[in-house]
Amino acid sequence: MISDKIRDILNGQINKEFYSAYLYLSMSAYFSEIGLYGFAHWAKVQSKEEIDHGLILYNYILGRKSQIHLTQISAPVFELNSPVEVFEQIYNHERSITSAIDSVANQSEGECDLATRNFIDWYLKEQVEEETEVSRIISKLKAFGSEKSALYLIDRELGKREYSAAVY
Ligand code: OFO
Fold first, then answer.
1. Model confidence over 93-123: pLDDT tens digits?
2. Fewer Cβ in 10 A, N or C end of the chain?
3. Is 56 near ligand 1, meaning CB less than 6 Å away?
4. Does the pTM exceed 0.90?
5. Which residue ranges make up each domain of the chain?
6. Half-sphere exposure (CA, 13 Å, Cβ side) for 127?
7. Which tens digits make up the pLDDT trace of 67-77?
8. How far is the CA of 20 from the centre of ligand 1 (A)?
9. Is 97 in the pocket of ligand 1 (CB under 6 A)?
């Protein structure tokens, strides 16, 4: 049985994951509007993965015989800037999600809820992968993104991203 405190933290994390899905989906729309369809595809795939992240938490809470409390998802906020600036905002967002996951890990440990502490390791690993991937894209954009032909190639590369359902 998980405590009320951990239940609330995990429900809060579902909201953050679904907010992330909204954020990436609105970024995808922005990239489509400016003709960067590969970037748009990449962001849409990420949006789907974020929904998976929320659903994994959802299934975990139900599996532990606790309660789901879904709350309002805020409208996504980001600056409609150059691709590199949008990706810098993505990086900052993912860092804030990493801090939230760190907090779930610390609090579940503090509550002696070792099953949740173990469960959340999957998210810690996922955050490292996401931060790494986004920072690589930022580096590429900083190195070559000011050249239109290079931006075109980066767009093509991001357009090849494949969606595979995140599985816990
Ligand atoms: Fe769910 O990993 Fe990004 O936010």
1. 999 999 999 999 999 999 999 999 999 999 9
2. N
3. no
4. yes
5. 4-158
6. 19
7. 999 999 999 99
8. 6
9. yes
